[in-house]
Amino acid sequence: MAGRLDGKVALVTGGASGIGRATALTFAREGAQLVIADMNADGGQQTVHLITEKGGEAIFVRTDVWICSHDTGHRWEEISPHLLSAVLACFMRLQKEF
């Protein structure tokens, strides 16, 4: 998969369904490596499968960004180190957030 995002890494929250999944699939078609973050593990794994079966690269991380960012008032980067650790461990960089 090559395109405008070739060689980039994108983190898509809510990527298990709906607009998040559509965004992830679009980014993958454009060549991005994806980190799919969502509470819905089944849907997240399905999104990863849809990407990888077409030659793309993606991982899923189960996380709840809503609670982290809205209930506590903290930035989600501070609350979800496991999410950013997964990005760095798999792809060593992050260029896009959605």
Task: Explain the overall architecture.
With 98 residues, this protein is an alpha/beta fold. The protein has one domain (9-97): Rossmann fold (3-Layer(aba) Sandwich). The chain has helices spanning 18-29, 41-52, 65-71, 76-79, 81-91; strands at residues 9-13, 33-38, 58-62, 96-97. Helix 2 links the parallel strand 2 (33-38) and strand 3. The mean pLDDT is 81.
Tag the structure with descriptive keywords.
4 strands, four-stranded parallel beta sheet, Rossmann fold, 98 residues, 5 helices, single chain
Share of β-strand residues: 15-25%
CATH third-level topology: Rossmann fold
CATH architecture: 3-Layer(aba) Sandwich
Strand order of the largest sheet: 3-2-1-4
Helix content: 40-55%
Principal-axis shape equals globular
CATH superfamily, please? NAD(P)-binding Rossmann-like Domain
Provide the succession of SSEs: EHEHEHHHE
Summed over residues and divided by their number, the pLDDT gives a mean of 81
Sequence stretches where pLDDT stays below 50 over 5 or more residues: none
DSSP, total strands: 4
Quickly name the level 1 CATH class.
Alpha Beta
